[in-house]
Amino acid sequence: MPPLPLVAALGCAVRLEAGSRPPGEVAAISRAWGDATVGGADPLPARHLSVTVGEGPLEAALAGLSQAVTLAAIEARRGELWMLHAGAVADEHGNVVAIVGPSGRGKTTATRALGAHFGYVTDETLAVAPDGTVLPYRKPLSIIEDAAADKAQRSASELGLGPLPPAALRLSAIVLLDRVPGGSDEPVVTPFPLVEALPELVEQTSYLGELPEPLTRIAAHAAAVGGIHRVTYSEAIDLASALAPLFRAPGEVVLAPSFAAPARDADDTADTADAGDAAGTAGTRWFRAAHLDAIGLTGADGGQRIALLQPDVDGGATLRILDGIGPALWRAADGRAATALAAAVVAEHGTPPEGDAEVAVQAAVRALADEGVLATDASWRVRDDVAWTQSDEGAVALALSRAGSPEPVALEGTAGAIWMALATARGASERAIVRVVADGADVAADEITADVAAFLRSLRDRGLAQRFAP
């Protein structure tokens, strides 16, 4: 029985294993994946993976195989590529237009309609390298042929879609889908400000929080392709002519300088706080809460915004967009008290025509604190120069910065739980870590607060953790 093909998925080579499938079904699986096979001229794969076809009826197994290959490839490339939940097609010059939208918005239908005129790149996940290079994933398309059955998996060739061009693929446009059934006969393509498009792009990105400078990278890719566009349309068959002008050579992907000030060791915040106290601003000190990235944006009204991507304690990430006096407060929150924050806001926005500036600032600070944007204590994270691995009992960590021959530290039981909360969060306040550990152990937070605080400081003393001011 001939083996199943080796397929290309997001720069990985994936060996499909037939399991116990009979020869006739193996041939059907090979046909479905025939357009995704690794070619002799393809670059060396970043990873070699293996996925076995599941049990059960063939159509259900094919649908499960598509999902399994996609998830395996995404998992393998996390932290390396911008992976958008998007369909994509390419022109003969290798210019790629990405069509972005959540499940059910019509990506596959739109990709199929566009693929009749352009080369099919993917209908599921678009992988973009830091320089804008696109890695194709020509998986079978999931087509509804029987409403009562699983979606059929059909190759691009079976559906008459175009082949890939010989030219290298480069991202040339990012388009958000906005289908309006029964709407205008002519699709309308309009520029869409990044400040408005960013929530959708973040939502449709896999493992965004694991990319270096994730928001900065999205902004750089958007700038390289001339900004984000939105297409409002009724029928997918009308999209090709409307999107044709977007197939154009992109610019260079250039990362803007970091918007946020570099994080500092929390011990360094003493000078800032003391200076504020000397100016009569004694009181609660406010810090920026942990964040993975921050970029400045301009709203439709011309006002300045700050987009923050903040780590969640469960390993995810949350996008927040600050407006009004929020950006000024966030920039000033480096350990200052409320009076100093009010002075910073007045310096940037002027004295309010009515009311007391400090009262207004205190209300805004409380609102930002409730959202987790500001905090009254610095954050904790695993140091960059620490190697660690998860074990059956917890974790084992090694401080690479220690001179000589550093000894690995076994972290088990409650110590392991605290370490995993710290490592998963990628930056969190002491209070947030206490909440996670308390919830996991089903105990009251105040019962373990002192122990968690003491253990975090012991990790710092061992060179394993860092208390920092973002």
Please describe what this structure looks like.
With 470 residues, this protein is of the alpha+beta class. It has 13 helices and 27 strands. The protein folds into three domains: 6-246, no CATH class; 264-375, no CATH class; 379-469. The chain has helices at 23-32, 58-77, 107-115, 194-203, 214-224, 239-243, 270-278, 326-332, 338-349, 357-370, 414-425, 430-441, 445-461, and strands at residues 6-9, 12-17, 47-52, 82-90, 95-100, 119-122, 125-128, 134-135, 141-143, 152-154, 170-179, 188-192, 205-206, 228-233, 264-265, 286-288, 293-298, 304-311, 317-322, 334-336, 374-375, 379-382, 386-390, 394-399, 409-412, 428-429, 465-469. Strands 4, 5, 6, 7, 8, 11, 12, 13 and 14 form a nine-stranded mixed β-sheet that branches. Helix 1 links the parallel strand 2 and strand 3.
